[in-house]
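Exercise 3.2. Students should predict the tertiary structure of the chain below and write it as structure tokens, then compare their answer with the key that follows.

Predict this chain's 3D structure.
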Amino acid sequence: MKALLSLTEGTRCVADFPDCSHVVEDMKQFKPDIVLMDIEMPNVDGISGVSLIKKNFPQIKIIMQTVYEDEVKIFACLQGGAEGYILKNTPAEKITQCIEEVYKGGAYMTPSVALRVIQYFNRQNDEKKNYNLTPKEKEVLKYLSEGMSYKMVADKLGISYFTVNAHIKSIYEKLHVHSLGEAVSLALKNKIV
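Answer key:
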């Protein structure tokens, strides 16, 4: 990495460290514009390092360069304030492109990481559209939307009238509605049933 930076016009490596044990002091001393950070390091890891740098030096840009593609680590780094996330097998020209993009105020992710982020948000949207209704609550709502009464739903599902009522109360809370009409309308609009 040091060789790549020294061969890239307009960039230079001002320092490198085995971990983030002294990251605040190191940033004060070397005043980098951009930090390339690994995640897995001894003592103080990169995720903690991102938070420490951003808390004390919000102007310093951070690019995570790691082997990890799992969502937990990606989001921990991005939530900590990292502007870039690239994998260690990223080609040299893409690394320099990433550094330039982040230096200019942008953000950068390798395509496979960007895909993970998009998939995560798509899953979150799907969960929100379903309002976290249980399968039984969806079933109750489906039958009610078909015009069945509480008693008919209870008979159909082999549960008591009071259990149907409890499901309805939970459905109202989760959908933030106050009537069966509102619940059915929202369920049909969002294709919950």
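Discussion points: The chain has ten helices and four strands. The chain has a mean pLDDT of 90.
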